[in-house]
């Protein structure tokens, strides 16, 4: 896709048109977000504002049609690109993106316009088993609509956050391919959370539980997961292993929960141990 990025960076009108067109086409919002992020990373937020506006207008129209994911993804990846450009740390960009997504979830941005009541009613009518389960939750004192709103909002927020991170990674890879070949690979292979960044994630998780903000507790693990994925990439790169190992890793990551827990634990330990620093070959 590097030729596309090269064409987009020929000038603002090219990037503006590409971002707008991608935002209009269903399920191409990720490309629009990557274009905005690329311009932001390369030129800064102010020069990227026209491109952002071109993406936001059609994404906003999708929001009026009931799909908030395109608009939220574009805005979120832009925010993360600003942080990454200014701070030059993936950990900080991921934390800011996680906090912003948690705020959106907590505000109910991702809940269907009519609330979750009609959806629950459809589920009750479609399945006696679900009807009995919901009735049991009500007897136990739970608000089923509130639970459904939290579940839908949390899952949608997670999708938006992962999509925004993917857009940012694509934009960073484009930027490296155009102006610093091989730079993104080195940067991602070296991605590791600093102790203070891990401390912030733990703090946010505790605050979420104490203050009754479940959105924080639901999302704080995402930066650690990305750091764990970078750890695996870096390990395979250092060892010069076949790319098939990465394919196997992602298959296991997507299909098995234990693999996710292992990656999170490895990333947690890596904050203090620095596996890649220990494994990297040292010169005489």
Tell me what the structure shows.
The protein has 284 residues and is an all-alpha fold. The chain has 16 helices and no strands. The mean pLDDT is 91.
How would you briefly describe this protein structure?
This protein has 284 residues and is mostly helical. It contains 16 helices and no strands. Helix 13 (221-239) packs across helix 15 (257-273).
Q: Over all CA atoms, what is the radius of gyration?
A: 21 Å
The strand count comes to 0
Structural class: mainly alpha
The residue fraction in helices comes out at over 70%
Q: Report how far apart the termini are.
A: 40 Å
- The percent range for strand residues is under 5%
Give unreliable regions as ranges.
none
What is the overall pLDDT average? 91
H/I helix tally: 16
What is the global morphology?
globular
- Largest sheet at a glance? none
Q: Report the order of strands and helices.
A: HHHHHHHHHHHHHHHH
């Amino acid at each position: 896709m590097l030729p596309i990025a090269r064409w987009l960076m020929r000038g603002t009108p090219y990037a503006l048109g590409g971002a707008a067109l991608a935002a209009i086409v269903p399920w191409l919002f990720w490309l629009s977000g990557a274009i905005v992020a690329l311009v932001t990373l390369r030129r800064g937020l102010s020069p990227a504002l026209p491109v952002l506006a071109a993406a936001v207008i059609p994404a906003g129209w999708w929001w009026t049609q009931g799909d908030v994911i395109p608009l939220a993804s574009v805005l979120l990846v832009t925010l993360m690109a600003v942080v990454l450009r200014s701070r030059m740390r993936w950990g900080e960009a991921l934390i800011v993106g996680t906090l912003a997504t948690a705020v959106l979830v907590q505000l109910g941005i991702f809940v269907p316009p009519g609330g979750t009541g009609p959806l629950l009613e459809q589920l009750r009518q479609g399945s006696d088993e679900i009807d009995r389960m919901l009735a049991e939750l009500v007897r136990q004192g739970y608000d089923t609509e509130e639970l459904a709103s939290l579940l839908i909002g949390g899952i949608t927020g997670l999708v938006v956050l992962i999509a925004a991170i993917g857009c940012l990674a694509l934009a960073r890879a484009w930027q490296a391919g155009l102006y610093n070949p091989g730079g993104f690979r080195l940067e991602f292979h070296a991605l590791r959370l600093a102790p203070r960044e891990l401390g912030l994630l733990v703090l946010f998780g505790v605050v979420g539980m104490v203050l009754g903000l479940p959105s924080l507790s639901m999302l704080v693990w995402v930066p650690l997961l990305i750091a764990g994925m970078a750890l695996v990439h870096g390990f395979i790169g250092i060892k010069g292993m076949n790319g098939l190992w990465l394919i196997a890793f992602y298959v296991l990551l997507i299909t098995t929960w234990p693999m996710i827990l292992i990656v999170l634990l490895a990333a947690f330990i890596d904050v203090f141990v620095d596996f890649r620093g220990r494994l990297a070959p040292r010169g005489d």
